[in-house]
Amino acid sequence: MDATRYDAVVVGGGAAGLSAATLLARSRRRVVVVDAGEPRNAPSAHLHNFLSRDGMAPAELLAAGRRELAGYGGEVVEALATSIERAEHGFAVRLASGAELTTRGVLVATGLRDELPDIPGLRDRWGDTVLHCPYCHGHEVRDQPLGVLGGDNRPFTVHQAALVRLWSDDVAFFPNRIALEAGERERLTAWGVRIVDGEVARLSSGDGLTVELADGRQVRRQAVFAGPRFVPNDRLLTGLGCEVGDNGWVATDASGRTSVAGVWAAGNVVDSPAQLISAAGAGSTAAIALNHHLLAQDVERAATALSRA
User: What pTM was estimated for this model as a whole?
Assistant: First the structure.
């Protein structure tokens, strides 16, 4: 890597970032992906709902994406991006190593982090028998005794209690510290969800999981779904001055364009429900918009040069 200017720097090497970078590289743009190497789905053994890649290990998908990007001349730098700042004719992306990448455009695909409920034993089993997304993992635990644990993300968790019921007739919902409204309790019960009130003290393992309540009760489950609080890794965007919407997340248009000209965002960093396949699609959409932004600059520069000739 040298000091030569890039057409685009993509920060984040997950499905959204690699998809975006590959499209830009195929458009004959000089593009580099800066990846800190901390994928959100690393604890999962398999990925699902990605056409033609169902059941693949998440790391294999990323490795395949890197190979494809390299085949079109795209670069990957394994580093942590610490800031993005405006610079002459574009932006400067600064890395933890002290290096600096200059670029005409930026696409941020840094994802989000899951803040898990503070229940002893939960984190150790995250991605194994403690799950988050029924669409990602529900089929694999279908028709087994399942649980849903209440956490700080109240709307998500209550909805999840109903959703998980699609995969099993034996679903126990542990509201934990969530105070259910009478209507919520009635609807869940009518839908066949068993509500187990009381504070959850811990999870213990064995053949499946045991949910232990503070009053000493124990409920055996094969797997449980927990609702984390989704926190976007958007420090680079907010530090640059990108506008934040009423929901607290960086605002983008349909193409992923932020309020800062020349900066796009895609994937979970701006869209918490995005699955791998939709994040990859968002990366592609953002890359097309970013390429059109670069094209407008190219044409304007050529026209200016011609007028001065």
Answer: 0.93
